[in-house]
Design goal:
By secondary structure, the protein is an alpha+beta fold. About 15% of the residues lie in helices and about 40% in strands.
């Protein structure tokens, strides 16, 4: 990731499963629960911020709990999602909140853990037309990615979050949704005017070879009608995670009033 993040040249970068260290310490820590043991960066938010000195980072914490260093000493860590926006872009509105649960300050707790959403309105300097982008990390269920009451409630929470930002036709929503393509979530968002680019472009794999399970869908990018897609790609390499990166080059379609288009990378 250290080589890929600066080279991809994204004006806006959205990442889920981001760690932040309240107190600096070890570079690597260990997460353990009943299902898995994961070695992870102690402060991924700091790592990415250092790789992108011309971007401003915004971190949304979902929970704080214990990780372990290589001496089995407990270290407190925050877990959540984050965005980085290039300084040349004007962020005129920023909201973050929860689509499931509330912030857990004293441990990870049982699944499903709280899930945050971040949304921002951005105006490029070369055009007066703003657009909205958002991302979230969908609920994880150890039993799989099928529909559950909690996921149905998550959909309604996402719809409520989107309703704060208008117009929908200038919106981008992306992330690791932890959903299958037939989930009612996509019909609900389609009804609002958002189209998923993963399924629309025939992609059948959003995972890298690091993910060994047969089910290959998890990540999606949805766009409104005025988002002109120049390129959308889910490259299998380089491998920076068990998820493929989703790269979107886009412009804002000119309206009938002759407004200029803007071009950004997400």
């Amino acid at each position: 990731m250290a080589g890929w993040v600066p080279e991809v040249g994204a004006d806006i970068l959205c990442l889920q499963e981001v760690t932040r260290a309240p107190v600096p310490g070890s570079d690597w820590l260990i997460y353990e629960d009943a299902y898995r043991r994961l070695d992870q960066r102690a402060d991924l938010f700091r790592d990415i911020s250092a790789l992108l000195p011309d971007h401003i980072g915004y971190f949304a914490a979902a929970a704080r709990g214990p990780l372990w260093d290589d001496q089995r000493r407990e270290v407190q860590s925050e877990h959540g999602i984050a965005i980085w926006v290039h300084r040349r872009l004007a962020v005129t509105e920023l909201r973050q909140g929860f689509i499931h649960g509330q912030y857990r300050p004293k441990g990870w707790g049982a699944e499903p853990v709280p899930r945050a959403i971040q949304m921002a309105r951005v105006t490029p300097p070369e055009a007066g037309d703003s657009f909205v982008f958002g991302h979230f990390h969908g609920l994880r269920d150890p039993s799989g990615k099928g529909q559950t009451p909690a996921r149905a409630a998550q959909t309604q929470a996402v719809v409520s979050a989107l309703s704060v930002f208008q117009p929908i036709d200038r919106m981008i929503l992306a992330g690791d949704f932890n959903l299958l393509p037939d989930n009612p979530f996509f019909a609900d968002l389609s009804g609002l005017g958002l189209t998923d680019l993963v399924m629309a472009n025939g992609h059948t794999d959003t995972r890298t070879r690091l993910y060994e399970k047969a089910q290959r869908f998890a990540d999606y990018t949805l766009v409104g009608a005025e988002i002109g897609v120049a390129r959308f790609d889910l490259p299998a390499v380089p491998i920076v995670s068990d998820h493929r990166a989703m790269i979107l080059d886009f412009h804002i379609r000119a309206r009938d009033d002759g407004a200029k288009s803007a071009s950004e990378q997400h």
